[in-house]
Design goal:
The chain has strands at residues 17-20, 27-29, 37-47, 51-57, 63-69, 82-86, 93-96, 102-104. It is an all-beta fold and 108 residues long. The relative contact order is 0.32. It has one domain (17-94): OB fold (Dihydrolipoamide Acetyltransferase, E2P).
Length: 108
């Protein structure tokens, strides 16, 4: 997935980055507006007790795992539902394009 964001890094860097983000740090919503949101489609839903795991396919074909706290079964999101992901990059660890150098560590 290619997307442009402005994010403060530990040192100057230009170019593509890789980011690592825990699945529970990605927030889902049914409606989307904003530069940080990415549209996706839920492919699979897995109930994990206190959490629900969603496999979300992005427009470029890549897939992300997203976790939310479990809610009542009738309120869970459904497969094939369109959702918007807030990637919360301030909570991500970012690496250079090769994945060798840490550019920014996650803020928890």
């Amino acid at each position: 997935m290619e997307q442009q964001w402005k994010q403060k890094l530990a040192k100057p860097y230009q170019g593509k980055v890789l980011f690592s983000l825990r699945p529970e740090r990605i927030k889902l919503s049914a409606e989307g507006a904003g530069e940080r949101l990415v549209r996706g489609t839920i492919e699979n839903v897995t109930f994990l007790g206190e959490k629900v795991s969603y496999s979300v396919r992005l427009p470029d074909g890549s897939e992300l795992e997203v976790q939310e706290h479990a809610v009542q079964p009738h309120m869970m999101r459904k497969a094939k539902q369109t959702v918007y992901l807030d990637l919360q990059l301030d909570k991500a660890t970012m690496f250079d394009e090769a994945g060798r150098e840490v550019l920014s560590r996650a803020a928890y």
